[in-house]
Design a protein that fits this description.
The chain is mainly α. It has twelve helices and no strands. The longest helix is centred in the middle third of the chain and has 30 residues.
Length: about 300
């Protein structure tokens, strides 16, 4: 399946969800909003299951962990500091928020759920292998359903013209630049095993692990799919830590490090630790990076350098 077809399917699904949403009955709307927080875990189970089967053909699967942690850490820190330097030059204003232990524990609970979903998927995959069963399964279609549901959710999001302020748009721009610069640094460390375009592509997931793992597997290989999955899972963890450690002092930088997750998983933390004033930053940055991530991944994977 070509990258153009994959991207086309993603945008068709999110558009369908957006335009169909106003015509849904009240009961269907409630159902969508009820299942959406859990659907990502279902998708993560399916991704881990599919990758476990595919990773059978990789000589050393344990080798994917170090590059995943390296890329996740450097891209998170890179996005944070590029955004910090940018706003230090143009706007020193900072709104401080209170840190809630309860919210932090809830965030850790969500991370644990993600790891549990991964473990369940891997366990199912290993069980299928042990029983010597052959199941044809493609989690891409689950991803398309998930994207459709996100489109429905976006239809009920209240947008404001002030959200398109050039200062707000600098947050996702800093995330992109910081991720690219980090990828270039990572290339000098990983150049013996990965090409520059592969490392650049791995830096473009912005924490959306349920999408990147599938997309890399479809467009490249199971090995890179596994690295992408772990990279974006760890990137979300690093973003949560930065949010609670430094979000009260450098809110926009923390949002930039959160990447695509600032629109959903880390949004509550933005409101609590950065302040309500920065919720539009998080929503717009997360939306832009969520739309760009699959496009940028496909673009870099299609290049050869």
């Amino acid at each position: 399946m070509t990258s153009f077809v994959l991207i086309f399917q993603i945008f068709v699904c999110i558009s369908l969800g957006y335009f169909i949403a106003p015509h849904l009955s009240q009961s269907l709307k409630k159902f969508v909003f009820r299942i959406l927080p859990y659907f990502s875990y279902i998708l993560l189970v399916s991704v881990a299951f599919e990758l476990t089967q595919a990773l059978n053909h990789i000589p050393n699967p344990a080798a994917i962990l170090p590059p995943a942690v390296l890329i996740a850490f450097t891209t998170s820190i890179g996005s944070f500091f590029i955004c910090l330097m940018t706003y230090k030059l143009i706007d020193r204003q900072s709104v401080q928020g209170k840190i809630s232990l309860h919210l932090f524990l809830n965030a850790l609970k969500n991370i644990c759920k993600a790891f549990l979903a991964l473990a369940v998927g891997i366990g199912l995959g290993m069980l299928i292998q042990k029983l010597d069963l052959h199941i044809a399964f493609n989690s891409w279609y689950l991803l398309l359903i998930f994207i459709f549901l996100i489109g429905v959710e976006l239809a009920f999001t209240q947008f404001d013209r002030s959200w398109l302020s050039w200062k707000i748009l600098l947050v996702p721009v800093a995330a992109f630049i910081g991720s690219c610069l980090a990828a270039i640094v990572n290339y000098f460390i990983l150049s013996n095993h990965y090409s520059l375009n592969e490392v650049m592509a791995l830096a473009q997931g912005y924490g959306w692990y349920s999408m990147s793992g599938i997309l890399f597997t479809e467009l490249h290989s199971a090995k890179l799919g596994g690295i992408a999955l772990l990279t974006d899972l760890f990137r979300e963890i690093f973003a949560i830590l930065l949010m609670y450690c430094l979000g009260w002092r450098f809110p926009r930088s923390a949002i930039s490090s959160a990447g695509a997750t600032s629109m959903d998983v880390t949004l509550a933390m933005v409101k609590q630790s950065c302040g309500t004033h920065y919720v539009p930053h998080a929503m717009m940055s997360g939306l832009i990076l969520s739309l760009l991530a699959p496009l940028l991944i496909s673009l870099f994977l299609s290049m050869k350098f």
